[in-house]
Amino acid sequence: MAQMRTEEARENLSDIAVAMDRSLRVFADFVKPILRRHKATDLSFGNLMFLISVGEGDARVKDLVQKGRHVGSNASYALKALEKGGYIKRWMDESDRRNALVSWTPKAIDVVTDIKTAASPARPSGLDLRKAFAAFESHCARVPE
After folding, report:
1. Domains of the chain with bracketed CATH
2. Of 54, 118, 60, which Cα lies nearest the Cα of 87?
3. What angle do CA 100, 101, 106 make, to 5 degrees?
4. What is the pTM for the complete model shown?
């Protein structure tokens, strides 16, 4: 019986992972026309997701890397591309020079706001999904032996 539950859980987790992957691909197609409207075709989907994760206000790069589970070199590449494209500004934290801070530029605010506005009709179901995805992430973070 316990073996069957373990197999069902694995199957359910893999089904969820496939659904999440498919959802991200659909979302990538969803944002393409918005990016074209903003002449932001230089923005890759991965960098867009990183940009959205920065959020409003100032963010410490260290926190973004940890929270997003990014490899440091990938985050560095994304930040350079986002800064070069005019989507973020980056500077050293005056109170602790070891920390770099980033924030959205007006260009990024326009793009992200339009994406969030276009996606807002899905918000009620999205709140439930966010809880489910957080639970999935938490479970998968515990690497099985």
Report:
1. 2-135 (1.10.10.10)
2. 54
3. 145
4. 0.79
Phi and psi torsions of 2, nearest 5°: -65, -40
**Secondary structure, 3-state, the chain:** CHHHHHHHHHHHHHHHHHHHHHHHHHHHHHHHHHHHHCCCCCCCHHHHHHHHHHCCCCEEHHHHHHHHCCCHHHHHHHHHHHHHCCCEEEEECCCCCCCEEEEECHHHHHHHHHHHHHHHHHHHHHHHHHHHHHHHHHHHHCCCC
Query: Please, are residues 115 and 34 in contact by the beta-carbon 8 Å criterion?
Result: yes
Q: What are phi and psi of 7, to 5 degrees?
A: -65, -40
Q: Model confidence over 16-60: pLDDT tens digits?
A: 888 888 988 999 999 999 999 999 999 999 999 999 999 999 998
- Summarised one tens digit per residue, pLDDT across range 80-126 is 999 999 999 999 988 877 788 999 999 999 999 999 999 887 666 65
**For 61-75, what is each residue's pLDDT tens digit?**
888 888 777 777 788
